[in-house]
Amino acid sequence: MSTNINEPSHVYLLDEGLELWLIVVQYSRTMNHDLLKLCDNLLPLIEQSSNNLRTCLAITQTYIFLCPDVFLPQYGKDIIKTCHYLLTDLRTEGVIVIYRLFLTVLRIAPKYSIELLRPYLVEVFKKYYEHEGFIQINQIYLQMIARILILDQVTFSMILSEMGIPDAMDKIVTSWLVDMPAVARNNEKKLLALALTSLMTVSSDIIFENFSTIMANISATLNDITNEDEQSGAKVDSLILTDDNEAEIGMMMFGYGFIDTENMQNETPHYDRCRAVCLQDPTHVIVLKDYLQNQLITLKGTIGGSE
């Protein structure tokens, strides 16, 4: 009742109702009929674009973590469409929150998310190509582009083609190389480095022309994320996560959406779900140094074979 905008009393109870709703989903271990049915109230609340938008999107994200296979097919399309519509009227903070929700979808449901977000991805690429607006938003565009590239190079190429701009690839890569040193978080920087590394074997003039700058950015990222193992003394990728480095997992998760410190400490079911996603993320699974070496070997073989 408190989150149903058709109920007159929701005006007085909405704030508390949303907070309670968020907590209930965070502490839920499985989806049930009543919890899913509550989502019928979610879209009308998001459409209002009120002061509660952030909490509504936090609830949305928590549902995505809880049961993406059920929630996204039933509610994902309409929520994404509504969020996209709201982008034109929101301030920078609101735009960032919505695009972070889109990033969450890409993280949690990699294959399905591309289909879900596909109608809006050309716009993301164009926005980054135009490179206007605040740096925080451009960095989120770049994070989305990098994830799409890692997930599906075919879709990445199709989007570039659909942009209908001859120098789209050139300008996106050039801006990418300029923007990358300004990225503060190591996990985000490594994501960009992984995506750049995946491009090294693509036959493209822009890649060969900027090869030294690409290598410089990847090398800088390697320097940032490489630590010395306390026991063996070997150089290791500090972002590779396993069950053995639980403390690092908690720290890494600060970059994943709306997760707050209190829930991390309490280790709610929501924390466990976020942790599972974190452990499967390419930035925490793929060793950048090894991937780079493999790509260089492949590139060497390709160049050698063409001579």
TrEMBL record:
Gene3D superfamilies according to UniProt: Leucine-rich Repeat Variant
Entry-linked InterPro entries: ARM-like, ARM-type_fold, TPR_IPO7/11-like
Pfam family of the protein (one): TPR_IPO11
An annotated GO BP: protein import into nucleus
Residue ranges occupied by any Importin-7/11-like TPR repeats domain in the UniProt entry: 2-306
Gene Ontology CC entries for this record: cytosol; nuclear envelope
The name this protein goes by in its record: Importin-7/11-like TPR repeats domain-containing protein
Organism of derivation: Aedes aegypti
Gene: 110678926
